[in-house]
Write a structure and sequence with these properties.
With 102 residues, the chain is mainly α. The protein is built from six helices and no strands. The protein has two domains: 1-33; 41-88, no CATH class.
Length: 102
């Protein structure tokens, strides 16, 4: 084999080793990459807290964009609407029975 052939073979071996090293490093980076959350924290707590006042309050604090996506309005607008309808939907005692206490 000529000296040119030997150099070419050595260069090819070096390139293969370099490519192999880069591939191994990329695989290692992919393994160490931060995992994406499949379930957001507030959704995980839904079973424990229920989809009501506590959960919505936490959602508004932790993830305003998520709150807006679920409620289809900003928290301020929701609170404004709630203030308007609260007197109409509040539990009341009647002649037949007392309102349920939470």
């Amino acid at each position: 084999m000529s000296s040119m052939g030997i150099r070419r073979e050595a260069l090819r071996n070096l390139l293969h080793m370099g490519v192999r090293q880069l591939c191994e490093e990329m695989v290692e980076q992919l393994r160490r990459r931060k995992k994406r959350k499949w379930v957001l924290d507030w959704i995980r707590r839904k079973d424990r807290l229920g989809a009501s006042a506590c959960l919505m309050r936490e959602l508004a604090e932790e993830d305003p964009k998520g709150y807006r996506n679920i409620m289809r309005m900003a928290e301020v607008k929701f609170e404004e609407l709630l203030e308007m309808v609260s007197p109409l939907i509040r539990k009341k005692d009647t002649v037949m029975r007392e309102a349920l206490k939470c």
